[in-house]
Amino acid sequence: MHSTQPMGFTLFHAMADIQAKTTYRSWPEIEAMLTAPHASALSHKSNLPLFSPWAYKDVADPTVVKGNDADGKPLKFFSRTHVRRIKENLVEMTMLVLDYDGGSPLDQLIKIFSKWEHVGYTTLNHREEGKDKARIVLPLATSMSVADFEQLAEVIKAWATDLGADPSTADIGRMFILPAVREEHRHLAQSWHHKGPFLDWRMFRDMPTPVVVPKIAAVNPFNRQGRLRKLLPGGVIETANGHIAVRDITRKISNVRCPFHTDPEPSEFVNITARGTPFLVCKRCGTVYMERAKSDGIVDGIAQILAKKKQREGGV
Ligand SMILES: [Zn+2]
To answer: What is the CA(70)–ligand 1 centre distance, in A?
Structure first.
């Protein structure tokens, strides 16, 4: 790809923005956008503008999927100008974006990616807990179709993980917050541009496919009688902004994918009760609470050890 050739990607106003329309710009223009001074993050993280390295179908494309209404019926009309932000409307990925959430210092990142053309910028929580947090954007030599991406997704994830990146950053259609910083941290914000050859994604074809351990059903929808739906503490819930373990839900999270029915667009929410029990509210499945353990394994274990010790001391 010539660096002046337009590359498709998509800009979003906020996390909840479900309207997608591809923007076409040359890499030098994208590079300038990503290395411009960080925007002021005055509002909550979910209200900051984002980009996706994916191009979406044009609104005139007859294969556009409009999605369903709240009752699950296909929508007749969505928008005259935009398509719905769902996987079915993705066309191709033009950049590979990798997130580093504290695992590697910035100078190490610059070194790791120095063999490729790339931009890096510090993210909102940079230097929190004393750690460097940054995003690396690598333009691709040729764009990658949805089919190619899906075929190589596990290879890309393994490669990203080997380089210390957050594996979820290779999720299809993911959005990333554009450079933003809270004013009190402005002096810490950094971005850089490194010149080099564009990454050729075909290199992933030569890498071995990692052995994928089959996922244990993250959320078991049935109890032993095959009826009750329960969230399990160790279950993992998919959200528009990544994955979260059920037990780690501590506040309301919107744009959650219901694990109990085929939910193509994450639009449900989870929250916690006053007593701290996570629950999911789905328009179709109703309200589903997290299963409460009948006993706490660790506490029970300690109690048993103490009881045995007592027995021994008592000479029984
Ligand atoms: Zn549901």
So the answer is: 11
Residue with tokens 């979820």: 168
Closest alpha carbon to 3 in 33, 22, 31: 31
First to last CA, the chain: 80
Average pLDDT over residues 240-266: 87
- Strand-strand pairing, 133-145 and 50-52: unpaired
User: What value does the mean pLDDT take over residues 181-202?
Assistant: 95
Nearest in space to 282 (alpha carbons), one of 296, 295, 265: 265
For 263-277, what is the mean pLDDT?
Answer: 88
Residues 94 and 53: beta-carbon distance below 8 Å: yes
What are the φ/ψ torsions at residue 144 (nearest 5 degrees)? -115, 125
> Mapping DSSP to helix (H, G, I), strand (E, B) and coil, where does residue 35 land?
helix
CB 237 within 8 A of CB 270: yes
| DSSP string across 69-98 | -TTSPBPS---SS-EESSGGGEEEEEEEEE
Mean pLDDT of 221-237: 68
The answer to whether 7 and 30 are in contact (CB under 8 A) is yes
> Beta strand 180-181 with 118-122: parallel, antiparallel or unpaired?
unpaired
- State the residue for tokens 């079915």: 88
pLDDT digits (tens, 9 = 90+) for 33-57: 999 999 999 878 888 999 999 999 9
302 residue type, one letter: I
Q: What is the whole-number distance in angstroms between the Cα of residue 21 and the centre of ligand 1?
A: 28
Cα–ligand 1 centroid distance for 288 (angstroms): 9
How far is the centre of ligand 1, averaged over its atoms, from the C-alpha of 283 (Å)? Answer: 6
d(CA 228, CA 253): 23
Residue 278 phi, psi (nearest 5): -65, 145
Amino acid at 43: S
Å from CA of 81 to ligand 1 middle:
30
